[in-house]
Queue: 3 jobs
Job 1
Amino acid sequence: MVTTDPSTLLRHALAGSRREDRLRHLEHVPERTPVFAAWPTAIPAEVRAAYGAIGVDQLWAHQAEAIDRVLAGGSVVVSTGTASGKSACYQAPALAALTAGRQGSVLRDRSPSVLYVAPTKALAHDQLRALEELVDGRLSGVRPAAVDGDNSREERAWARDHANYVVTNPDLLHRTLLPGHSRWSRFLAGLRYVVIDECHHYRGVFGSHVAHVVRRLRRLAAHYGADPVFVLASATVAEPEQLARRLTGLDVAAVTDDGSPRGAAAIALWEPPLIDDGGGEHGSPTRRSAIAESADVLADLVVAGIRTLAFVRSRRGAEALAMSAQRLLDEVDPSLTQLVTTYRGGYLPEERREIERTLREGELLGLACTSALELGVDIAGLDAVVTVGFPGTRAALFQQFGRAGRATDASLGVLVARDDPLDTYLVGHPEKLLGAPVEATVLDPSNPHVLGPHLAAAAQELPLTPADLELFGPGSAAGVDALLEAGWLRRRPRGLFWTRRERAADLADIRSSGGPAVQVVDGNTGRLLGTADSSSAHASVHTGAVYVHRGETYLVEEFDHEEGVAVVHRDDPDYTTTARDVTEIAIIDTESTSEWGRARFCYGSVDVSQQVVSYLRRRIGSGEVLAEEPLDLPVRTLRTKGVWWTLSDDAVASALESADVPGSAHAAEHASIGLLPLLASCDRWDIGGVSTALHPDTGRLTVFVYDGHPGGAGFARRAYDRAAEWLQTTRDAIAACECADGCPSCVQSPKCGNGNNPLDKTGAVRLLDVVLAEHRSAQLADVSSM
């Protein structure tokens, strides 16, 4: 469907319903006219002709600028909008190099090669398809190949021996290509360009790991005589030069002035209605489920023939949305149910490829998906995107909305708010979402939990030298000392050698999943259904859990956490399951402190001990708790970074009765976790919290928020640096909520291990008022003393 008026798409979403009051804000984004530029003369005629054959006869201005910089030997980060042709910025120079290499301008063992790195296999394969279509029958000598976990042994061997344009992901680099670099020497010796696509995705601990994977790659390329140019790309990244330098360790120039055209767009902020039945936890009002609301919107758009992606945060949510939309479509026309399905991580490779094909070829009109399709997979002809709940960052939201409306076509983006403090705040304050820049990408390569394993991996690849420590940055010397003390490295005249038999690369889990994925197996057939992340498996595939796969529900018969296997069987229970846990926290080291009068704000290292102790069975639809079942799972301990604030006893007493203190602190903790993503490139699932009226390490009321990754991810540090703004926003969001006593839109949390009890909404506002007043008084005192 093509339309020049994006509001037409929105009218289809509202058609036949009384939903106009749910539309909290509508933003119109005007179309953008293109700025053209000529091809750089250094690009060979045959490469320009190949582009001409697919309709690209001239470039947009930013493409020409980027290509010129790359051809001049400078590393570049291209930060322009979705569908702005960023791929040509690296493909054209790469193809120029490969065609020159074919003509014998270099020795055979130095034949140029190109490495393309994407955060997901789906994106890498999409890039491979586009490259093959471009060069097929037009450019001989270009030999592309995908190298990832889906390869056969024969395919990987062919790529090592023959490919000169390899598309892959950081995981394959880390675990296979770099440890086995001697077998890839031909490819590494000729490495001319390295492309890091969707670079905004490399944030937090994952980004910190990838930064060291890149440094290991640079080190090995230099060992074989190569000095590649890096080209990074992203449609949604703040401070692109800074991020690119942190990822690569190189000086990188930014190209940001977008010269591509863009069709008109409409962005709708949508809030489900309150259900005034007091059916939430502890009798609180709730809103209609964002999943149910989004299923209505998706079904209406599919009926209208509008090709739509619906992004959902969780695997289970994607399955539930697709099933709900299918039920609604079945009431209209049973044949329409075949036009909607799901796409998420955990599917087997052949399932993912088939779904991608049917969407590209128009056999599907509606797809409920997780972020697996967020990252640049080029599916032409999409008209609308429905995002179920704020995805954690503005960058992710705009990336998702950018999947629709390619070139000059109109598009619609709908954000359906969840019953969540941040979502509620954003739909009520659209300027905080649509009028603000995307968040700075937070990563910390100096994190010792990240740095140490990569130093070990690098030492196994090649002996470490003093020059290498400079490459790996601050903390490298201390990391090497720790590895020497542990006996894992040994000093020799040629450098530092790895001493152990096991693979050093296995020490670093770059996705920070906490260990190998848990295998989910059908107990009746023995078939592998999918996988669950190790870090979340205790809560998602424990014994008795409801597991959903491709629209079918299963019950977990047995979870063996030591072997990493969950055995399930098909069932159709009338309930869902929610895990409950117990969390304790201890302060290990205080690195930074800000005195706010009777309040104190701190940052440092903490130990978090967490144990899943039971799960709730809730009736589908009403959410009624049917039973709580105990679980016997081990305690897991995480050493990480945290931020915490304390308040003296007299300051607490000035605002609250003693009986109200635990619930007030608990409510403030929940809301502050929910609002931190406004300031840091995280979502609430990246962080955790604990609150207590009297903590043994501080002797005061204390509220903690911590990074949910070993060694920290930089989010707690960002919270410390912007503490007053963070707590003021939290206070305002709680106070503005229209509920009386607290609800999921302000202080209740879906991840609370204590069943959201106790919570005191009014007390949380009073408590935060006192903390913020102490901050203002401290600021005035500082000014008066100057």
Job 2
Amino acid sequence: MENATPMFRQYLEIKKRHPGTLLFFRLGDFYELFSEDAVTGARELEITLTARQKDSPNPIPMCGVPHHAAASYISKLVRKGYRVAICEQSEPAAKGVKLVKRDVVRIITPGTAVDPQLSDAKEPVYLAAVSMVGDHVGAAFLEVSTGEFSATEFSTPDAWAKVRETIDSFSPLEILVSDSVKPLVSETFGVPVQQTLLNKDEAPTRVTLGVTLTSASGVIESYADAEQLLKRHFGLGDLAIFGLTGRNAAVSAAAACLRYAQETQRENAAHVSEINFFETNDFMVLDPITLRNLEIVESKGESGKKVLFSVIDETITGMGARLLRSWLMRPSVKRSEIQTRLAAVGELTDSILRDKLRFLLKDVTDLERLIGRLNLGTATPRDLSALGRSLERSPQMMASLADVSSLLLQVLAENIFELPEVRSLIDRAIAHEAPPTWSAGGVIRGGFDGELDELRELSLSGKQTIAKFEENEKQRTGIGNLKVRFNNVFGYYIEVSKGNVGRVPGDYERRQTLTNAERYTTPELKEWESKVLGADQRIIEIESRLFLEVREAVRAETPKLQSTARAVATLDVLASLAETAVKRNYVCPVLHDGDAIEIRNGRHPIVEAFIDEAFIPNDLFMNNSTDRILIITGANMGGKSTILRQAALIQILGQIGSFVPATSARLPIIDRIWTRVGASDDLASGRSTFMVEMTETATILHNATSRSLVLLDEIGRGTSTFDGLSIAWAVAEYLHDSPEHSCKTLFATHYHELTELAESLPGARNYQITAAEKDGEIVFLHKLKEGKAEKSYGIAVARLAGLPRTVIERASDVLRKLERYELAIFSDPKKSGLAKAASRSAASQMTLFGRSDEESSGTVSSTDGKEVVT
């Protein structure tokens, strides 16, 4: 723009260097947005859109937010998938300088938000990257705020499906993708390329899977560049120590994450000190469907609190809550690891030890994220004060753990560092009531620096002298309303009202004329002004330098600080699990190398926590031989789904190292839990409820192993009765007979015909949820026992729901006729006549579900396109 002001030209130059971002341009006490950014910002933030040069032919749209409240506005934008570039002054304002230098100090994106105001303390903020080298697909996950860094790689034919599962288990908020993998990522997530994956100079887009996809083209040009970046960052000659040798795709993905973090944070990110290479078989896999159906961390209903995480979360620190969440999302499959956790939880059920540790944890801040801010150069004086208070608890924690017997607690005690030098430095240097920022002074404690103390004394005495000067001038001039004031433009000045101008002494020098007053100075006032302002400016300079020196000295201890943070977070989780166990009467499960699940008086942890009456417990026994498939029938609302879910939740709790809601439990190690529960559709993709059900079922049948646990609830209900029954029958047989995919299965159904499977399949057993009916009223007993239910009590439940009496009576009449003519198609004889069909005998009923055509004694004939069984 030829006629643009110098300031706006500066803005345009900076904006050009940061395409694809909303540029928050600092002007005084506001962050301003201009042009298209302003239009977007005003719309998304619901703030007023105004304009610069309103009277010109081309006014410039603009909007702004106060700098002290910017975090809340930025948070809204980032949650919607936008990237925000923060532009600040890069030099102090000085007299005679009309335009100060400005530059972008940080770019905030959905996957790199590190400020406490931008994220939930209990939820991680993962940045992910996906890359492809040859036929290998790599994925990496970086939590920028804590430095947690993980990577994996796949080369199997179903590599992209496994990448999707892994991404879902971490739930990143932003995924970096290169041009070469855009089509494959789009296909994996079912999102059109042109709608989501944009060029690197365009803004990323929030898409249906709940993450922001960002082009990483050009971030890492080659594998060689990626390897060199990681080697240089970690100071290593090779990456073998991280298990990355030959893992080219994983290395490329990891390098993309690290480079992006460095570019957005404008820092080296030294707190990212290691990479954890993992395989998906290192933990139990819980896909998004299972996580949602079991309500692990997210509820299907309106209340997000009614989830397993909220029930067992008694953590005190944010880092502890995030660790517990990660354990739930990825339960362990390593028996030794689980048992060491269980032993530690068992020892912490001692209320004296647990209460002592939890009391100490109340004074511990979120050390992991604080260390991240320390290394990213954003830690504040209050952060250092919080760090000092937290470290003061280290010796007490170590003393409390001195006599523990469990191995894990002993290891944690060894990894907590007292760091007396750091504690002493913070205590001596940082003011106990530290300000939120270090640029305005008041950060350094008195006595820490001699020169600073002298300047503070000079500043204080000078201000006292100026106050005394005001009183003297009032007496000398006789002007009672004379004031000595200060502002950043004129410094100190004497203000006299218009009515008293005639009484002003001759030695007063006029500085400014106002509507109702005149402003003056004197040689004496100038002298003291020079001393005071010079001292104040020097104080700010010294305090800034000292604070940065202290912060750097503390940052140098990052490895020990991170070790302490991880140990304390783990201790917080273990104490939380012990607190839950005691509060909710959970017991320690017994893990074994067999395949049997044996639960006595098991309870559903979520339902139990949110009902007023006592929960009715149930026993459960399953194995891979005699009790492989449990076919559960019973009344609607009787508790079949509860039994399915509580079995899975107890297994998950056991494998994170938690006690479980039961009187006893013997549990194997499960590699994966599969669920097909509830009705859902995907209308956007044109998939009906039944199609979604069949797709999920197909995934289970293709991928379940002998170490899996499968929960099936009402398979086949989305189509006609015979279609659904046939599918359910075949699915049950497959899960029982398949050499590769047979597994422990809980199969809840209203198809009572499926109970016949127990007579033909050696590993199938019939169970029922008991209920009773008296005078037409149903009583749910909620007890699981062997045998098959005689009826589903659907009409009784309909009566409870409030259906009209005439509907209930008519339904009862229809039911009686259908039970009499089980294979007849019922219709109103007045309209089209009742289709006559012979009821089948017990023998014919068995042959209907026979396992070969030769065994069938019935025939199927066709008349006018309609099949009739005879």
Job 3
Amino acid sequence: MEQADRTRIPLEKLKRVCDCEQELSFCKTSLDVAPLDGMIGQERAVRSMSFGLRMEAPGYNIFVAGQPGTGKTTYVQAVVAQKAARQAVPDDWCYVYNFQDKDSPAAIQLPAGQGRVFQQDMDELISECRSAIPKAFESNNYEQQKDALLAGFQAHMQDRFSTIQKEAGEVNFFVKQTPGKFIFIPVRDDKPLSAEEFEKLPPEERKDIEEKGKRLEKQLEEALHEGKALEKQAKEKILELEKQITLAAVDPSFSRLKEKFSKFDKVVAYLEDVLKDVESHHELFKEAASSSEQPQLPFMTPPDAEENFTRYKVNLFVNNEKTEGAPVIVEPFPNYYNLFGKIEYRSQLMSVSTDFTMVKAGALHRANGGYLILQAKDILMEPLVYEPLKRALKYRQAVIENIGEQYRYIPTTTLRMEPIPLKVKVILIGSPLLYLYLTQDEDFPKLFKVKVDFDIEMPRTSDNLCKYVSFVSSLCQRENLKHLNQAALARIIEYGSRLSGHQGKLSTRFNEVGEIVYEAIALAELDESEFVDAPHVDEAIRQRRYRSNRIEEKIQEMILQDKILISTSGEAVGRVNGLSVIELGGYAFGRPSRITAVTYMGRGGVINIERETEMSGSIHNKGVLTLAGYLGSKFAQDKPLGLTAQITFEQNYEGVDGDSASSTELYAILSSLSDVPLRQNLAVTGSVNQHGEIQPIGGVTEKVEGFFDTCAAKGLTGDQGVIIPVSNIDNLMLREDVLEAVRENRFHLYAVRTVEEGIELLSGKPAGVRQADGTYPDDTVFGLADRKLARYHEQLSEGKDGPGESQHE
């Protein structure tokens, strides 16, 4: 009883109740406080984010790490938007046809808004060309110059043929023209010689006639050759004439456009290439004009009727004409094409084709000059995204390619787009565990040099309390909802401390806090209350727990039905109530478990049944080995520890991990060794080190409430309670029903620092202090255990094996 009084935790330390007069003296309702401006309790993250946004050097991209519900995504979008609004709008990017290499479209950079102007001006320019060029060729001047060139050629060729005919007549030859050629026929007495007549002529005369014919044929051949050369010259002159006429028709339009974009050398060079191409392909404009005048059925329209003019179009790839400040792109679906753009294809008669106008920008291109916000989990889940993103950031170039091309058996024709210089700050948002995983990649620390680390808790200071109320006020005002009165705000603050698991801190998981606020407001709406009051918040918390605690209730039901064996009264040897925490879908609750130990003579040491059956984790195994060290330090200083001890979590079918039950297991072993029964109306939690010091554990509030619920269901007897480590007292934020039971002395909480304090509380006997001769007093737990171990040693020394000894050896 004396030990219980020394270790009992006072009621006021079981929960830090919000004192409205002291902690909330600055307001009566949330309406009295201005809405929140900025971030609460994340000074480290805010300073890191500010630093990362200021850094312009390569590689200073940002990774925002934090647990879900801390508001990191909302904060990042807000602060980046504020930063971007003060920055200059980035340039537009256009892709145009490359007249030197048609498969490598060229990129042109223009000030924001000028890309659209350039695109429209080019459309108008080509439209003017398609109108002006055909009209220019309809003029009389063109026909006259063309006819003059043709007439000169024909006159010259007529003179040559006339000369040849005259010379042929002088040597008695007649020139006969047949389709495709000329024939020289000898004449005598003004009559052509037949073949028979020619053969009858003397040989000398025949030879003379043949030589004259060959000379005439040679002159004719020379004339025809000269005619072809003259014809080619005439065509070249006509083509040059047509180019001159084309240039005269379109040069004013081109000159006007070059003057307009004279500050952009790449645009001027492109326009000069377009002008040369229009000159060279003026027939396209003439043919298009003539074909447009002839009515055609849709299925008779040539498929490439307009494709001939596609190369003169401008693909406005990135358009920032309506962007205000630097772009902030949040890509919720970062698959490869959404992020890096794509080259689309058109299908034609069992084949596909593409051109530079079918190239589409991705989020990376739209964010160029600004910020790209991505969820880290998404880019890792999407195939073939992470590595291309790293390459883009490493080389600072945005490249467009279709990843499917490299996996085709027969690659299709594609384009090699000119890369666009990349200046973007990528912000990844993810969990701390994901950050640690990514740091194993050697490129990641070089590319994401800034870590913005969000905490899940903050100190419960007066300043942070005011900001907490401001957060609630901002929720109410933003949604035009009922405000909370002072008592309701106090409950919200207490809930924040419970979420953080510490009396001196508040949770920064504002999603969960906000959900309770919304649900309490909904309950107040049903009551038609002016303000949300404390009962509304309490009811919202109860209902939230009820929606999630089906499994918890099933376990309590099985305990009441003795299907899960838990004793809340009486005493037993080698048996202690341990406590664990189960978390399912974000809801955590405490579950009592019976931990038992059996000891007997042998040299097997401490055997963890969970470990032997591969049902325990490494941390639990470490805890068992630690308590074995404690036993050795207490009882094996003057003799070997001739002991086999088996410990287990009874009715454990899902495995166990963690060392929070190591002290409980040690109490069970000490009870079995000393044959001292332990109180079953107490449950124990706490880790132990090799020196017997009780160390803090997690989930203490849930563990206490879990055993309380079991005791309450079976009936509170007034002597039940939980033993926790002293260092966990400030982690207690118990429910009101638990506090009420403690207040009425129907339930108790005890805090211990050492194993000795715990075993005395459980057994009612002194633990025992080693005397000068190395032994312990007789009527103590350690004395009884030591005598049994000495007896085991004597029997083992005499050659007697304990039960199952050969098995353990």
